[in-house]
Amino acid sequence: MHRRSRDVNSPRKVQEQDSVPGPPGVDPAYPDGGTPPSARSRHGLDWFVFCVADIQTGFGPFVAVFLTTQKWTQLDIGLVLTISGLVSLVGQIPLGAMVDAVCSIRAMAVLSLIAIGISAVVFAAWPIFPVVLASRVLHAAASCVLGLCLVSLSLGLVGPAGISARLGRNAAFASAGTGVAALTMGGLGYYVSSQAVFFLAAALVVPALTALLRIDAAEIAAAPRPREASGGSWTATIAGVLSLGRNRRLVIFCGCVVMFHLANAAMLPLAASMLTLRSSEAATVMVAAAMVVPQFTVTLLSPLVGRGAQRWGRRPFLLIGFAALVVRGACFALTGEPYFLVAIQVLDGVSAAVLGVLVPLTVSDLTRGTHFNLAQGTVGCAMGIGASFSTVMTGYVADTMGSYTAFLTLAVVAAAGLALVALVMPETRPTEAGEGRQSRG
Description:
Largest sheet: none
Oligomer: single chain
Number of helices: 17
Distance between the termini: 24 Å
Structural class: mainly alpha
């Protein structure tokens, strides 16, 4: 299949793009004769991101709600969610290596979408333990692959020069999709049934596939495949992980990500629990508002973060994201007023906008060659580890020393992460990318 004459990870070519203006009528970002992505492909990616967010929203809290209506015990619900969570955590690295080795990212995304649709139908139609467990495992694995493919498609479509703005646009569409889906599925669950939510999630696979197929495969530049990929085995995956382990900046970034999610994951659940104890009548509405406010904030801020990170660098925005988390934890510790708690969640939107753009962007910066998806999976695993320990740590501190101390503990962890970024994490923006290039994302 014809490809544009562009290597998405070639620093030499990016540097040439900056220094060579190119002949009239040629996009200066592609002086080698290639062409920028078409509007059809860019808009296809927009709506693909939106639809994927819609689909994945159905597999959030609605899972526990539906299983509860089917007379499942909390033990069985917890067991299913735990196993699927472990698949998401442990599977990130080998699935990342697998995505690195495939020839067509778009084809892999198609298969992942179909698998998610099947898992939604099976889950809703036959809510018995072995079927539900199998569907949740299938969904967890397919979601890991789909998330990796989405970022790889973005990088292949716009290249390193446009990926910062593109990721900001992705985050905005994903947040908008999540907000729309949460309202729609919440209404559907209330007025129809919680089972209907999963049939809707399965039906949304169709527009997602339509949007995905609007992206011209010829416009997706192929990333270089790792030398280890030819092995196609655990040995190749281990060799890739060892190679990434020698990337000092990536290891430092993983540490920063662990600290962020260690401080962040349990913050809203703890605030929701405290709110329920103080005012059970208002808790449902206030918690829903506390979830919607960050989504709205992310939709507004993500494009600005993407463009700003390309202009001023990644590190200043990482500092802003961690600082917002520190202030948020301190504010939660100082007030229990429901309306203040909702207002404080604007800071969650700031952090989410920053990390949503900067995590894949920094991984792209640090893997300008091979192992991009393996690195994504490794960082995703770091996120999961931090989030898993966050809930356990916070629950213990809250039960033994109170919620005030628990929130302060989370704020201190966030402050430690902020110090790690400020003192150890280097700037990762490639110097070859140039200043002030207008993005095409």
